[in-house]
């Protein structure tokens, strides 16, 4: 691939860390925005920067983008892997302060970081024309947001996290339409049950995932790298794809019961 500068929010662990490793292996310069630093070393070639950033603070995010650009150029790719767990409580029991925090981190944080990328690319001038075998604008950049299988259909005890992730899916479609003239593709991945370090810790503490595995047609949880592979494809390779939300869930969402 040509040299790219990618921003990965939440890139210090789990799916975000797997994305960072894949992008470094593709030769991209990578900047991680997170509240905790990524592990070092990564064991991959590439340029890596880290900024401790609250993704809901637009001033902090814009400042980090500008500082990162000094070393690696204006960012042209973004993956929004930041997030926190919901309370997993009935709607009547949800704490509204926490509810707003979950919406703010997931939804507002996605918009804030996406706007930072688009503003930086728009600042370089209008999107170039002649991007392929047919008339159209050349691709300038791409964004992959992170939704969830909880965004599909109704789920008990997911009136916070699930709603936030569903809203990210809608936001993705809206931005894809608005920013196509800028040469920016915007897509989303909806991860299914994934064996991240957080989930592995729950399993080690006795959490039983057998019922979950039984409902998944592929009968197992995903690895973070399997999620990262789908994200990498949409971010770097799917040149004629924008506005889609792809479930990567072992068949979970197609089960009708």
From TrEMBL:
<dbReference type="InterPro" id="IPR002347">
    <property type="entry name" value="SDR_fam"/>
</dbReference>
<comment type="similarity">
    <text>Belongs to the short-chain dehydrogenases/reductases (SDR) family.</text>
</comment>
<dbReference type="InterPro" id="IPR020904">
    <property type="entry name" value="Sc_DH/Rdtase_CS"/>
</dbReference>
<protein>
    <submittedName>
        <fullName>SDR family oxidoreductase</fullName>
    </submittedName>
</protein>
<dbReference type="InterPro" id="IPR036291">
    <property type="entry name" value="NAD(P)-bd_dom_sf"/>
</dbReference>
<dbReference type="Pfam" id="PF13561">
    <property type="entry name" value="adh_short_C2"/>
</dbReference>
<keyword id="KW-0560">Oxidoreductase</keyword>
């Amino acid at each position: 691939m040509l040299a790219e500068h990618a921003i990965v929010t939440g890139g210090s662990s789990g799916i975000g860390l797997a994305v960072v490793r894949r992008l470094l292996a593709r030769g991209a310069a990578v900047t991680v925005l997170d509240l905790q630093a990524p592990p070092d070393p990564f064991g991959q070639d590439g340029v890596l920067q880290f900024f401790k950033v609250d993704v809901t603070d637009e001033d902090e995010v814009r400042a980090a983008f500008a500082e990162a650009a000094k070393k690696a150029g204006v960012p042209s790719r973004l993956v929004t892997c930041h997030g926190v767990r919901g309370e997993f409580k009935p709607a009547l029991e949800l704490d509204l302060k926490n509810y707003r925090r979950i919406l703010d981190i997931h939804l507002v944080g996605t918009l804030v970081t996406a706007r930072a990328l688009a503003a930086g690319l728009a600042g370089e001038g209008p999107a170039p024309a002649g991007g392929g075998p047919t008339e159209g604008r050349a691709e300038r950049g791409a964004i992959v947001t992170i939704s969830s299988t909880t965004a599909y259909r109704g789920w008990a005890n997911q009136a916070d996290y699930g709603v936030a992730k569903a809203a990210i899916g809608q936001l993705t479609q809206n931005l894809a339409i608005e920013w196509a003239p800028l040469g920016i593709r915007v897509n989303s991945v909806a991860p299914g049950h994934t064996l991240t370090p957080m989930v592995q810790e729950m399993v080690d503490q006795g959490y039983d995932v057998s019922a979950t595995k039984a409902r998944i047609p592929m009968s197992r949880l995903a690895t973070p790298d399997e999620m990262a592979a789908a994200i990498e494809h949409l971010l770097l390779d799917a040149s004629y794809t924008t506005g889609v939300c792809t479930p990567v869930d072992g068949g979970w969402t197609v089960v009708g019961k």
